[in-house]
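Figure 6 in text form: structure in, sequence out.
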């Protein structure tokens, strides 16, 4: 059986002890035993060659083909300047009033500098647009599209109709989903209200029964809770439709039969009705009684048909 033999490359590696001894004697030096030469990079700004190269690649084209502009910055609008001042003051208040009592420097504020940079780019573009439109008008180049101009669509009408149908379908699906969600929420709320109402009714009934039990056992003589429950029932009945009118049929029945209560002996004479003799005064002018309508209003019909006996006698 062959013994395990290490590679030559592994046996040649110095041990840690040998490296420590070499470092202690000064044989080892930093830089992986090799000194690295530092080279200084020199930058050359050859202006003559740069100008020559620029002249070589420069195109001799008219301005309308290049549309290059070199302009100054347009003046700042007053409202923008005021906005910058307000922003700087607000940032100063935030910085100085925060923890640490930092001293605010507007030139070192990145937010304010970003706002100023964007404003500077906007003003530069504004000045370039003003100068460019002036030059185009001098060259008689139209800068506005005519009112009767119709641009050709990049996509066909069939494709746009498909896109429109797709968008309409998405909107309809979103509306349907939203409606279903609202209905689900309304059902949840209605169910919760119904459960709360039932629990309240059960609690009120339980409370009333407990009070009634106390009255029956003689522990209490207060019966006001019955009147309170009756008043609640009347209010509930009246709150259903306060503008509801009683029909004539219902009014006549109420007048004839009453609203409940004691009915027996309601038509018997009393001492007051017996002593009242106004109906038996023959001197007083009595109102004619109409048996058909059962009221005391006189019948003012002019062309009233005569009775059967009168008509029979009239034929003779």
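Output sequence:
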């Amino acid at each position: 059986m062959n013994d395990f033999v290490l590679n030559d490359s592994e046996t040649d590696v110095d041990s840690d002890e040998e490296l420590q001894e070499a470092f202690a004697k000064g044989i080892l030096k930093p830089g992986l035993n090799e000194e690295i030469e530092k080279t200084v990079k020199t930058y050359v700004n050859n202006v003559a060659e740069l100008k020559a190269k620029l002249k070589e690649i420069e195109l001799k084209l008219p301005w309308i083909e290049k549309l290059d502009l070199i302009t100054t910055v347009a003046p700042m609008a007053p409202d923008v300047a005021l906005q910058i001042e307000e922003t700087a003051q607000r940032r100063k208040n935030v910085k100085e009033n925060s923890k640490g009592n930092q001293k605010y420097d507007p030139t070192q504020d990145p937010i304010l500098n970003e706002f100023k940079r964007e404003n500077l780019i906007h003003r530069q573009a504004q000045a370039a647009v003003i100068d460019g439109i002036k030059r185009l008008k001098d060259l008689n180049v139209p800068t506005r599209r005519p009112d009767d101009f119709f641009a050709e669509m990049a996509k066909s009408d069939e494709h746009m109709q498909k896109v429109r149908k797709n968008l309409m379908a998405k909107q309809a699906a979103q509306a349907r989903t939203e409606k279903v969600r609202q209905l689900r929420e309304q059902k949840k709320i209605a169910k919760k209200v119904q459960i709360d109402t039932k629990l309240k009714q059960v609690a009120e009934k339980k409370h009333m029964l407990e009070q009634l039990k106390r009255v029956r056992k003689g522990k209490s003589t207060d019966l006001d809770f019955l009147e309170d429950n009756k008043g609640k029932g009347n209010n509930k009945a009246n709150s259903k439709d306060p503008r509801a009118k009683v029909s004539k049929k219902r009014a006549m029945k109420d007048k004839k039969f009453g609203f409940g209560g004691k009915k027996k002996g309601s038509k018997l004479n009393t001492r007051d009705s017996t002593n009242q003799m106004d109906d038996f005064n023959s001197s007083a002018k009595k109102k004619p009684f109409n048996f058909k309508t059962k009221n005391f209003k006189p019948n003012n019909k002019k062309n009233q048909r005569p009775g059967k006996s009168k008509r029979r006698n009239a034929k003779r």
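Caption detail: DSSP finds eleven helices and no strands in the chain.
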